[in-house]
Task: inverse folding
């Protein structure tokens, strides 16, 4: 994609994608920009502006063709491809993520978990094996792994990221509560549930000061 699209826009795309998937499930194939704005909660002009970044969709007087827009957004988000993925750290969170089948359905194919704990090495989560981190380099190269999910303690996150990058990982989904530093060609998405929870806490307490 040549044009630089702002991260604020990109962060709204998965929401459009999700609502469009729901509409398709309900067999809604055409929707006016007003109806779409009502269900998503963004103004029609916001939606138009966002989509215009990618060439614009929808027609005056017709609205949006749901399937076409869904397919285009899938392509824009790279969800028309599949990504071989591993999870590093097979504790509570790593296992919970491995147990979730939704990632697989959207093209993120978790191939294995890795851990340093010998008591975890060898067990299976669903059909996935927990492997020794010592085997990680070979596995990443052999299985053409693109994405790694970091679920280690935060003290281990940066050194884990360094190793993953050295072994050829291109994208890191980091759950450890510390921002990791990576070279420019490596993409990182930090996830922090506590930050979201604190926003809820703020909203509950807003006006109490
Ligand atoms: P846990 O202690 O159950 O699991 C951590 C696992 O990482 C253990 O099995 C441990 O043996 C393994 N490990 C340690 N060093 C390693 C290394 N160098 N390489 C590979 N594996 C290694 O912890 P839990 O509850 O699963 O949390 C994992 C991480 O996720 C923590 O950093 C925690 O703070 C974070 N977390 C983040 C959330 C978020 O919203 N981003 C939510 C919950 C947890």
Result:
């Amino acid at each position: 994609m040549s044009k630089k699209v702002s991260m604020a826009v990109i962060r709204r795309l998965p929401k459009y994608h999700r609502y469009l998937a729901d509409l398709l499930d309900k067999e809604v194939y055409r929707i006016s920009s007003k109806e779409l704005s009502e269900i998503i909660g963004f103004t029609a002009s916001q939606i138009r502006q966002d989509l215009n970044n990618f060439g614009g969709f929808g027609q005056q007087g017709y609205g949006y063709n749901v399937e076409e827009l869904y397919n285009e957004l899938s392509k824009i988000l790279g969800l028309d491809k599949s990504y071989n993925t591993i999870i590093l750290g097979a504790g509570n969170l790593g296992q919970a993520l491995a147990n979730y089948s939704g990632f697989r359905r959207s093209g993120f194919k978790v191939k294995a978990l890795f851990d340093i704990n010998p008591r975890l090495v060898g067990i299976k989560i669903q059909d996935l094996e927990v492997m020794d981190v010592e085997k990680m380099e070979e596995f990443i190269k052999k299985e053409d792994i693109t994405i790694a999910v970091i679920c280690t303690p935060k003290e281990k996150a940066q050194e884990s990221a360094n190793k993953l990058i050295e072994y050829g990982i291109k994208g890191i989904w980091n759950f450890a509560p510390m921002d990791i530093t990576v070279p420019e060609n490596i993409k990182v998405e930090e996830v922090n549930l506590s930050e979201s929870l604190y926003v809820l806490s703020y909203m509950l307490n807003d006006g109490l000061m």
Observations:
- Residues 88-94, 114-117, 120, 133, 151-154, 156, 160, 175-177, 191-194 surround NAI (CB under 6 Å).
